[in-house]
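Practice problem 4.
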């Protein structure tokens, strides 16, 4: 969610700042920690996606301003986050050494293949770029006609790479409350949209990742105005023709988390599945930037 809605969001949340005590703050099952990440760096905001190393310590973070950074997450013996050391945010490039042009920087989804190839999905001008290495030059993946018809500020919000190397992306909005979200899959140089995500309430997708179990995890959020955000993480088996029945990993009480946008699923040292999510502060002082973690059932 980029600054397209900052005015409305600010007006709604300004009165809410500091009021969260009236919300149900009982943590959902599996909740581990919420690490707020204070910073004087003006570039550290609008965080929209992240990828983690297999051990949960190396991190690559994407912002919705067309920038990215890499760093290290410090953890204690129990695996809880104790600090984050992040390098400078660098601009994503297009086909030349110049940063992406005006109106083309709303980067929302990030997926990194085992060989280091990175893919970034965008709102604004809906498309997916491929980078042999982040920081290098971009290659545009072919775009199906449907990408050009997506709502300008509600396009390709989430991106994930499957065990077979196929890319999966979906827009933030489906176009109708009764219409499922289309999932676009890029495999062997061709896009299909044989899959879809059912709409369940007013939740909208914000992030996606394939876990080490080979299943697709989709992060969604719902905005309740003065009461804040609710978040939900759901796990799906993926077949050639559809998604299996969704299994909800958690659904947070309204106001318990801020604006969770990106998700990475991995295994900790004890062998437990863990989901790490990044919060987007929308460059607003009363929203947090930070990381939230849950332990997930196998």
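Answer key:
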């Amino acid at each position: 969610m980029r600054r397209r809605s900052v005015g409305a969001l600010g007006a709604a949340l300004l009165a809410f700042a500091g009021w969260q005590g009236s919300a149900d703050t009982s943590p959902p099952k599996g909740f581990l920690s919420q690490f707020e990440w204070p910073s004087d760096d003006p570039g550290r905001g609008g965080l929209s996606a992240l990828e983690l190393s297999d051990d949960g310590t190396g991190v690559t973070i994407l912002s919705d301003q067309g920038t990215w950074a890499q760093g290290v997450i410090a953890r204690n013996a129990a695996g809880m986050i104790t600090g984050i050391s992040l390098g400078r945010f660098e601009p994503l490039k297009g086909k030349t050494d110049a940063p992406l042009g005006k109106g083309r920087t709303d980067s929302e989804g990030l997926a990194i293949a085992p060989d280091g190839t990175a893919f970034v999905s965008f709102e604004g001008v809906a498309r997916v770029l491929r980078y042999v290495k982040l920081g290098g030059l971009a290659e545009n993946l072919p775009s199906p006609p449907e990408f050009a018809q997506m709502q300008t500020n509600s396009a390709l919000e989430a991106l994930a790479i499957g065990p077979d190397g196929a890319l999966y992306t979906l827009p933030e909005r489906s176009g109708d409350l009764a219409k499922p979200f289309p999932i676009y899959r890029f495999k062997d140089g061709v896009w299909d949209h044989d899959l879809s995500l059912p709409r369940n309430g007013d939740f909208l997708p914000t992030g996606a990742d394939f876990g080490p179990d080979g299943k697709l995890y989709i992060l969604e959020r719902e905005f309740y105005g003065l009461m804040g955000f609710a978040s939900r993480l759901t796990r799906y088996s993926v077949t050639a023709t559809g998604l299996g029945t969704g299994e909800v990993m958690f659904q947070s009480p309204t106001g318990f988390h801020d604006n969770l946008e990106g998700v990475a699923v991995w295994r900790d040292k004890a062998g437990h599945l863990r989901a790490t999510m990044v919060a987007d502060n929308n460059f607003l002082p009363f929203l947090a930037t930070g990381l939230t973690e849950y332990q997930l059932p196998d």
